[in-house]
Amino acid sequence: MSGGSFDIDAPRWDQTTFMGRLKHFFNITDFTTALLPDSRLDEAKALVESCRAGSVPPGTPEEQLHYAKKLYDSAFHPDTGDRMNIIGRMSFQVPGGMAITGCMLQFYRTVPAVVFWQWVNQSFNALVNYTNRNAASPITPKQIGVAYLTATTTALATAVGLNLYTKKAPPLVARWVPFAAVASANCVNIPMMRQQEILNGIAVTDENGNKLGHSKKAAVKGISQVVLSRITMAAPGMIILPIIMQRLEKYKFMQKITFLHGPIQVMLVGVFLVFMVPAACSLFPQNCSMAVSKLEPELRDSIRGRYGESVQHVYFNKGL
After folding, report:
1. What integer pLDDT is reported at residue 136 of this predicted model?
2. Please, are residues 48 and 9 in contact by the beta-carbon 8 Å criterion?
3. Which residue, 155, 178, 199, 282, is the most exposed by fewest CB within 10 angstroms?
4. For residue 210, what pLDDT is reported?
């Protein structure tokens, strides 16, 4: 196969449909890719870059190119091309998320346990949010610290407050406290970690990738979609699993193996996340669009002044 005959950046599946995006994200959130050494990932990156330059080694199978692109998309930032830290990658969401979420669901009864696991979860989320930010909008260490502290405080206040409030509530309600804390913290953590995009705008382009300017409204739309996706990602496991566990714990065999309740919850959360991570990432297109008419007046007028009515929509990377 010659490099010129294969467009490695062409979507393998139709990104305009949910099913197409679902196949794409099942591909790049495959947690087994997180187990590969950096040297293997760097080889994949070199092959992708060779293909882009039109110099694929002769006889390279198309499937090998697809796999190299899978590894590249799973481990390298789409804006910078830099290798992302392993914990922040979407391919690490299943092993990382199942361990932390399982523990949050298991250890929800005492305030110290709630505080510890919510802190661990927000530290994990902060790293994921920073890793998957739109890299065109840099953020300072001080802003990262403020975002982290604000989100962690929000999660702890929600979790501890609800934990105390639900002491007299039905047991199932108390089991749902971790989800309430996670959802509220996501509403703070993600916007705070990506505040530069909201304050200064996010780069928007036409359909051919030509930069048209920066838009704060586009940033708000993209970040709002990410917040909704993250809450959706956590919801099934953190809402349905407590119902399952409450019913299972009534059986005598479960009462005899209380020491295994934690590991059981971790594994069940993993089952949910294997499906929910790609499904939640697929809710909205990665390359988000917005009508020119809905942009800030000055940017809208600038685009209309240069291109007239030929440009009706702008496009931008919403992050993950």
Report:
1. 64
2. no
3. 199
4. 86
Q: In the chain, at which residue ranges do the beta strands (DSSP E only) sit?
A: 202-205, 211-215, 287-291, 313-317
Q: Is 178:238 a contact under the CB 8 Å cutoff? A: yes
SS3 of 129, please? Answer: helix
Q: How far apart are CA 17 and CA 21, in angstroms?
A: 6
- What is the chain's length? 320
Local structure of 204: helix, strand or coil: strand
Q: Answer whether residue 168 shows pLDDT above 80.
A: no
pTM score over 0.90: no
- What secondary structure does DSSP assign to 145-198, as a single string? HHHHHHHHHHHHHHHHHHHHHGGGS-HHHHHTHHHHHHHHHHHHHHHHHTHHHH
Quick one: 54 exposed, middle or buried, by C-beta within 10 A (0-12, 13-18, 19+)?
A: exposed
- Residue 219 CA to residue 196 CA, distance in Å, equals 9
Q: Buried b vs exposed e over 71-91: b needs ≥16 C-beta within 10 Å? A: bbbbbbbbeeeeebebebbbb
| DSSP assignments along 78-90, one per residue | TTT-PBPPGGGSG
pLDDT of residue 159 exceeding 90, the answer is no
For range 52-73, the mean pLDDT: 87
